[in-house]
Design goal:
- The structure holds two protein chains of two kinds.
- Chain A is mainly alpha-helical.
- Chain A has a domain of 200 residues.
- Helix content of chain A is 70%, strand content 4%.
- In chain A, α3 runs antiparallel to α11 and α12 crosses α13.
- By secondary structure, chain B is of the alpha/beta class.
- Chain B has two domains: 131 residues, 3-Layer(aba) Sandwich (Rossmann fold); 138 residues, Response regulator (Rossmann fold), CATH 3.40.50.
- Chain B is 43% helix and 18% strand.
- In chain B, the strands form two sheets. Chain B has a six-stranded parallel sheet with strand order 2-1-3-4-5-11, sandwiched between helices.
- In chain B, α2 links the parallel β1 and β2.
- The longest helix of chain B is centred in the N-terminal third of the chain and has 20 residues.
- Chain B starts with 8 loop residues before the first helix and ends in a 6-residue tail after the last helix.
- Classes of the chains: A mainly alpha, B alpha/beta.
- Chains A and B meet through α3, α5, α6, α10 and α11 of A and α1, α2, β7, α7 and α8 of B.
């Protein structure tokens, strides 16, 4: 009895428990509303169903949110990811659309390399502004957020660029082992980031820089270099997400591609339990956060909640999720019931101010 | 690196300045001549035009039409791109007033906040023509006329075509609707016009209606869920071509044939949409034409000559079926 009780406590106490519970509740509510919500069938050799849609559509958000997690854990923020998605997609599609043979693999690889190259340069630009020159991250990345959209539109000349390239389309819509390729790309990126941060000391170094950049530097960590790296990784993730978004509809729309994805990504990171103050990050939490956000969007469509009320609906769910996630809020309730002292929270730790 | 705290202030100021200059540089690329001297009174009409921006293929075609029509009509055009910002537009209009142009025309970025600058134009005796979008000024004497599409009518045309097609249908016809951006005038009006028209046949029912934000990705994502939630969808009505194009992919992925299993009606008639219509993937498009240049130049001449013009003028628009699209496609400008 005591054993089950303590196991129950450990489970509740696990940081992934509440986000996972929220995701579960949302899926359950959808299934009650429409029993066929979770059903998956085989169509043309691919799995087909709403859960697959959710996974496929959340792939770009997962990518962007992974990069965002690293940036946020250094105590920064990257607002430019949405514009970077638009730029990378625009460059790739523009290049492909100008080629005589759009289906050639060589053309697509060149396009991806070019777009990725530009994105890395832009990521480095962010990194230099923040790490070398010392501008507040929110301002430094705001520059590219605003200018980047214009840049994407200059590249596409204000038009929607439609392409007809099977290899490029595969990034967003291709299948492997009956599942959408996008899922595997996102998964691979997640595993890669996890391996580099959790199997090496890099993750701990990032956290230490986010906790206190000055102290880390005095302890022998090149804080600037770590921060710089985080922005470059974030840009790379955004670039791949941009490929997926444009491949999904075989067209690049400089105006709409990746619009507001930075806010969704920040939300996914926060829902996942990473502190906005920096110093701690949870990649698995971020992924669940991204899945929650996409499920929420899909729920609105699946339940046909009217567009006028859907924004309010989303807001209410997000507030509920954040409250459930907040240890201080939960502690209030459990203390009232059982008189248990509140768990120590990392988020409550005062953050030292860094001059801009 | 890592000198986060030891940076000197001038260094940082220089960096911020450089960044701001960069942003300004990018933003300024689209701007063209608003400067230049005043106009001579040589009988030639000078028009100052302030465009919203270059946010879509539709807008680009609109700009080209106005520029070409001005050249053809022998009107000197001073063109300004407002980059989606009202303050840019107000600045451009004030410039035109100072330059004493004969006519000012503009597509307002937003509906409200124009009274002051329009009053200035009126006091200077310069007539103003609104194109494409209207303003909400209570004083209608501030502008001569509003030339633009009637979105309600576009929705109605789409609905009327459907009523005509389905007049022999005995059972219920299930319609799904992809709305434009929530709250946008084209979305509200097209929805309204369509609903009015299909009310003529009680068999026609909109079973689901969601916003796809006028984008392909949005249209696709919403359609995917529509298809899963509703086993029987007969008709798709999309508020613009792009959402319809996104929905095409969702329909194909669901193993259905667009244009046959599901009748698709859209609005706009941009090139990709017309291509889909010619290919039989769409069934009907109600045009929302950006080519209002010639009409605008005619109006400018009339206004300059002191003739009375109606307060509201609709853009000349048409509708397309698949056959008509095949004929029209080679000559489409956008």
């Amino acid at each position: 009895m005591n054993d089950t009780m303590s196991r129950y406590r450990t489970m509740i106490g696990h940081r992934l428990f509440w986000p996972a519970a929220v995701l579960f509740v949302m899926l359950a509510a959808n299934t009650i509303y429409r029993p066929g919500f979770l059903s998956i069938e085989l169509k043309d050799g691919h799995l087909y169903g709403t859960p697959i849609d959710i996974l496929r559509l959340s792939a770009p958000l997962i990518l962007v949110a992974l990069g965002m997690t690293l940036v946020i854990s250094t105590g920064g923020i990257d607002l430019s990811v949405g514009s970077l998605c638009a730029i990378s997609g625009a460059i790739a599609c523009m290049y492909i659309s100008k080629q005589p043979d759009q289906n050639s693999l060589g053309v697509v690889v060149t396009a991806l390399a070019m777009a990725m190259g530009v994105s890395l340069v832009l990521g480095a630009w962010n990194g230099v502004l923040v790490a070398v020159i010392g501008i507040q991250p929110i301002i430094a990345t705001l520059i590219l957020m605003v200018a980047g959209r214009g840049l994407a539109q200059l590249i596409t000349e204000g038009q929607i660029i439609t392409i007809n390239s099977e290899p490029y389309r595969a990034i967003g819509l291709g299948h492997a082992l009956t599942l959408p390729l996008a899922i595997f790309i996102a998964l691979a990126a997640a595993l890669l980031v996890a391996a580099f941060t959790r199997r090496t000391a890099l993750g701990m170094i990032i956290e230490s820089v986010g906790g206190n950049a000055m102290a880390s530097r005095l302890a022998g960590i090149r804080s600037g270099r770590v921060i710089f790296l985080a922005y470059v990784i974030s840009a790379a993730c955004a670039a791949v997400a941009g490929f997926m978004m444009t491949a999904n509809v075989s067209s690049a729309d400089g105006n709409a591609a990746g619009l507001w994805v930075e806010l969704d990504a920040i939300l996914a990171v926060v829902i996942g339990g990473t502190s906005l103050a920096g110093g701690r990050f949870f990649l698995s939490g971020t992924i669940i956060g991204a899945l929650i956000i996409q499920t929420l969007t899909t729920t609105v469509y699946a339940m046909d909640i009217s567009p006028q009320t859907s924004l309010l609906f989303k807001a209410v769910v997000v507030i509920a999720v954040c409250l459930i996630q907040a240890p201080a809020f939960r502690a209030r309730f459990s203390r009232r019931r059982r008189n248990v002292p509140p768990p120590a929270t990392i988020a409550d730790k005062p953050k030292e101010q860094v001059p801009a | 690196m890592g000198k986060m705290r030891t940076q000197s202030a001038p260094w940082r100021a220089a960096a911020v300045l450089a960044s701001v200059l960069l942003v300004g540089g990018v933003a300024a690329c689209g701007n063209s001549d608003t400067g230049g001297g005043g106009t001579k009174d040589d009988g030639k009409i000078t028009m100052g035009f302030s465009q919203v921006g270059a946010e879509s293929g539709w807008r680009t075609a609109n700009t080209i039409s106005i520029k070409e029509a001005a050249t053809a009509a022998g009107i000197e055009l001073k063109f300004d791109d407002a980059q989606q910002k009202q303050e840019n537009q107000i600045k451009a209009i004030r410039n035109y007033i100072q330059q004493k142009v004969d006519v000012i025309a503009f597509s307002p970025v937003v509906e409200s906040g124009w009274d002051t600058v329009l009053k200035e134009a009126k006091d200077a005796g310069i007539p103003v023509i609104l194109t494409d979008r209207s303003v909400d000024s209570a004083d209608k004497s501030l502008y001569k006329t509003f030339l633009g599409s009637d979105f309600v009518k576009e929705g109605r045309l789409a609905g009327e075509w459907l009523v005509e097609q389905k007049k022999t249908a005995s059972g219920p016809v299930n319609i799904v609707e992809l709305q434009g951006s929530t709250g946008a005038a084209p979305a509200n009006d097209r929805k309204k016009g369509f609903a009015e028209a299909i009310a003529a046949n009680p068999n026609l029912k909109v079973i689901a209606s969601q916003t796809g934000d006028f984008t392909r990705a949005g249209g696709k994502q919403v359609m995917e869920q529509f298809l899963k939630a509703n086993p029987k969808i007969d008709v798709l009505f999309a508020h613009n071509d792009d959402m319809g194009l996104g929905a095409l992919e969702a329909i194909t992925a669901a193993g259905k044939v667009p244009g046959k299993d599901i009748t698709i009606i859209t609005i706009d008639a941009v090139k990709d949409g017309m291509q889909a219509l010619a290919d039989g993937k769409f069934n009907f498009i109600a045009e929302c034409s950006p080519l209002l240049g010639p009409q605008l130049m005619d109006l400018a001449k009339k206004v300059k000559a002191g003739q009375e013009v109606p307060a509201r003028i609709e853009t000349e628009e048409t509708t397309f079926t698949s056959e008509q699209a095949k004929e029209a496609l080679p000559n489409r400008k956008y």
